[in-house]
Each structure stands twice: as C-alpha cells, then as structure tokens.
Amino acid sequence: MTAGTFARPGTGRGRRGGGRPGGGRPGGGRGRAARTVRKVADSEQFNGWAFVTPGAVIIILFWAAPIVWSAVMSFQRSNLLSPSTPYVGLSNYRQMIHDPIVSQAIQNTLIYTALFVPGTMVVGLFLAVAMNRNIRFISVYRTVAYATMAISTIGEAIIFTWLFDPSYGIANYVLSRAGLPQQQFLNSPSQALYVIVAMTIWGWTGFAVVVYLSALQGIPQPLLEAAAIDGAGPWRRFRAVTLPLLSPASLFLAVWLTINALQLFDEVYLSTQGGPLNATTVVVYYLYDQAFQQFNFGYASAIAYFLFLVIIVITVIQFRVGRRFTYYRS
Amino acid sequence: MPPGRRVRRMPFSPWHLVLIPATVVLGFPFLWLVVTSLETPAEALRFPPVLIPHALRLANYRDALDSAPFVRFFINSAIVAVTTVACNLVLCTLAGYAFARFRFLGRTALFAMIMATLMVPFQVTMIPQFIITKWLGVHVLAGVGINHLGALILPNAATAFGVFFLRQFFRTLPIEYEECARVDGASRLTVLVRIVLPLAGPSLATLAALTFLDSWNSFLWPLIAVTSTDQMTLPLGLATFQGAHSTEWTLLMAGNVMSLVPMLVVFFIAQRYFVRSVAATGLAGT
Fold first, then answer.
1. Nearest CB to A47; choose among B2, B98, B256
2. C-alpha–C-alpha distance, residues A100 and A111, integer Å
C-alpha cells in the first residue's frame, strides 16, 4: 500500500484515474474471485460511488432535476387541472412584462430590500460594537439579542401584527402618549411595507450581531493600539481600522441579507397576505399565489426564473462593487 | 483601553446607556408576547392597553391547547427536525468524505452539479418538488407523499450545503492518520467512522445546529406540502391557528409562547453551537 492511495484530491499527487489500490499481488488459484471482490469493495471507485450515492440521489432528485424541470415548465402552459402541457414559447415571460401586479411586486421587493438590508446591517454593527466589551450584564444584553434568532418568522410576524394592531396595539398607545395621531399600520397601503421592514430587522438582529461580533473579536488589538499611539481618536480608529477590517463580514451580510430579502414570504403571508391593495405583494408572495392558489405552474415558474436572474445579477454586482471596498487580511 | 490617554473613572461603563435602551427595545416584543398571553381576552382588547394584567390567566394556554393540537405540532416539528438532522449528518458525512478523499469517475462533475443547486433559490425548485413529492406518495410510498411528515424530511435529508461544508472540513484534516489506519488494514468506512469522525465533532455539531434551525423554522415548504392539521409543524400550525382565531390575541400569544419556549430552551442549552454555526456561515463568506 502506498501513500498515493490516499493522495489528497486536487493536489496532483494522487494516482490519475483512481483505479485499483496497492500493487496488485499476483493472484493464487484459490480464492481469486473472493480476492477480486474484496479488491473492488476496497477501491476508491466503488467506495466513492457507494458513499456519495445516497446523498446525491436526494440532492439530484429534489434539487438539481427540478431546476431543469421548472425551466422547461416556464415555457409551457401548465396547471394542475389539465393534463396537457403545451409549449407556449416565451408567452409566460411576455405575460409577466404586462402584468401590473408583477411590476408592483418587483417595486415592493426592491423597496423592502433597500430598507431591510442596510437597516439590519447598521443595527447589527452598532449593537455588536457596543457589546464587544467585558462589562457587567454583557451576557444579558447578548442573550436578548441572540434570542431573536430563536423565534420563527411566523412567531415574529404574529407578535408584530399584535404590536402594530391599529385598534389595540401598543404602538398606537405609544403614539397617543406622545401626542401623535393614531396610525393604521398594516392596514394602510402606505405603511404596511415599513412595518414588515421593522419586524424583519428585529428578527435578523441576532444574526447580524453574531456575525459582526465574531468579526470584531478577530481584530488584532495591537492594530487599534498602534492607531491610538499615532493619535487617532475613538471615532477615527473605528473608521480607519475597525470598519475596513470588518468589511469581509459586511460584504457577507450584505449578500446574505439581500438574498433573503428578495425571497421574503413568511411575514407577508402571515400579516397582510399581500394587501392592502397589493401594497405588500412581494415577488415570492405573488409567485406562491400563482403557483399554489391559482395553480398556474408555468407562469409561476417563469416568475421564479425571473427572481433567480435578479438574485444572480444583484449578487454579482454586490461582489464586484464590494470587492473594491473589502479589505482582506492574509 | 488605549494607552497614553487619561482614563476618567466612571461608576459604570457609558456603554450601558446605549445597551440598556437597545435591550429594552429588542426584548420588548418577547415581554409583550408573554404579558398578552396572560391577560383576559377583555384586557387584551382594551385601549389604552393594560400593561400589567390583574391576574395571571393561565387558562389561555389551556384554551389554546383545546382549540389547536399544539402538542401534536410540537411532536411533528421535533420528528421532522431530528430526523432531518440525523439523515444530514450521515448522508453528508459519507458524501463529503468521498468528495474530499476518494478519486472516482465523475467526481468533479457530480460535485459541480451539487454545488450548482446551492445557488438556486428554493422558489425555482418548489413546484417540481411538489409534483415529485406528490408522485412519490402515490406511486412509491405514501409516507413520503404530500400531507405526510416524510414529505418534509426526504427532500432535505441531504443538503448540498452539508456536503460542501463537511467536505471542506475533511480536507483540512491531516491525511496521515487515515493512511496509518489503512496500512493497518482498516476498511475505508472504518477509517471514516473510527479515525475521522472523532475529529469532526465541532463541525458536525455546527452542521446539526444549522440544519435544526432551518428545519424547525421552515414554513413555505410545509405550507405547500401539508394541509391536514395532524401533520403540521409548529410554524404552519401557528399560522393556521392565526387564520382561524385572528382576533383572539390571548390565545394566539399563548400558542406563540408554547411554540417559542422549546426552541428558546434548545437555543440556550446549545447557544455555543448556534452562535458558532452562524459565525461559521459568516466566515465561510469571507
């Protein structure tokens, strides 16, 4: 048995093509078949496939094949009710362009994303910087922030629907105590989306804090001390040292939160069902409605592919632009 | 503390002045959730709101349990989450290890295909997934079909993320231990189980924590795949309950507390792993 049998893939040290391990001892007459079986059972080829197959079957069946299938479906008129699925070319995509609710949904999704992503990042960064110190009760502060990670989106949406209830909610009570007029919140077409922004920022705070805190704790203290010796004040140190060193975490959060924001669904489903007057109809909510309320699978697939395209384009832009502002040590 | 600066002594850190209000704002929704769940329905529907209930009305919890099978939802959620985590640990370990250490025909192509699924949002695959699941339930095994818990487990029994995550980890291990065990005649599976896995504890725990959170909070797929009450998981059950009792806030909050508490307990027991797993996703991106 040679070390080559176990060569790390990708290092070029390995034997090309895998194949039989060992030197292939000359087989005797007796038990040659048994030995061959054992040799095959011990080979990288056999083991590779045996180890990979169970997981790969599931991933291919439920995740890889559906990618192709829904692409095909987006060119078909397909719904659950009729068995025939004729090809209709680009008609689903053309329908999308002329569908006023689609453009409304795109607009809502973009507004939501543009508010939610920076909002969560600013809140997370601020809290993480505040919590990145050993003071009394720090574990209480951190624990409360982390707790927002434990609640489901549905639980979160129910609480906020109650907090912002127009008649009995405590938000209106606070406004009335402050002498401000009562608001309709989720019942108002001009406010509902912002309430959803607020509830989702709250729900993601713990996540953002954890990411920023772990990045902050990776910043070497000597760098900050050197800056202080050079006469940089706290704000200057934060701007010139901490923030650049946090940029990889910021880029990650920006990308991750954006991908999640573009797929907003749960909170909308629970609190407004897209209303009032489509004010909170986001792309995925409309997609769900088309697919599983109207059963227009073809049209919904076209919307899904459109969403996919938007996510890819925005992510690529974020990485391109982000790279310019991202500072990687090492 | 930066050197060279006069440090003024304060009785407490000024950061408390920032953190106390922030914590009050962050914690208030939780507090108000619990308060409302203990009020009488009449107290909840009063304006200005009753900030401190006159008596702790635990009957809300009994009423919530009477009007929706929260225990059933909880058991379903637990079955789905635990099975999904277990399947992921086994299947992703096997596949991740093979991708990390074995050379076999088609490895690169297969790995690329699996990685490609990571980029695609769930909304793209959910309609075919629904059709496939429906077909499997009718033609293969009812237990994995629409309206069965298996439908919530099977599609997530192995994830591309898990395969990728563990492969990356296995590649960082020094190969010498494995080579030694092989020279001593251990089979490849034995090497994986006896040599590699004992070193993989923290990575497996991280993957388990992430998978558990994902599964426990998953909503869209259960919403599509399950319609009968006795197969619902907690988020779906809660949402359905809200649909039926949208103005009975005390019951809703009681149900919400009951759904939240088990997760909070798990979360605080395993906080280290949850925090580390989120931090790990963060680092993976950097």
1. B98
2. 17
Q: Is A191 helix (H, G, I), strand (E, B) or coil?
A: coil
- Cα separations in angstroms, B42 against A161, A316, B1, B36: 18, 53, 54, 11
Using one digit for the tens of pLDDT, what is the confidence trace for B6-51? 556 667 888 899 999 999 999 999 999 999 999 988 888 887 888 8
Q: Do A59 and B252 touch (CB under 8 A)?
A: no
The alpha-helical segments, DSSP class H, found in A31-99 are 32-41, 44-59, 65-73, 91-98
In a domain, B8, yes or no: no
- Tell me which residues of chain A, numbers 118 to 147, contact chain B at a CB-CB cutoff of 8 Å: 126-127, 130-131, 133, 135-137, 140-141, 143-147
Chain A residue with the nearest C-alpha to that of B160: A59
Residue A285 contacts B where some CB pair is shorter than 8 Å? no
Question: Which of 1.10.3900.10, 1.10.3720.10, 3.40.50.620, 3.40.50.720 is the CATH number of A93-325?
Answer: 1.10.3720.10
Instruction: Judge if B185 and B234 occupy the same domain.
Output: yes
Q: Is the ipTM of this complex over 0.90?
A: no
In sign, the C-alpha dihedral spanning B110, B112, B118, B119 is negative
Same domain, B95 and B230: yes
Q: What is the pTM of this model?
A: 0.86
Range of the structural domain that residue B34 is part of: 15-57
Give CATH 1.10.3720.10 domain extents, chain A.
Answer: 93-325
- The minimum CA-CA distance between A265 and chain B, rounded to whole Å, is 8
Q: Which of B36, B249, B286 sits opposite A248 (nearest CB)?
A: B286
Residue of A nearest to B171 (CA): A8
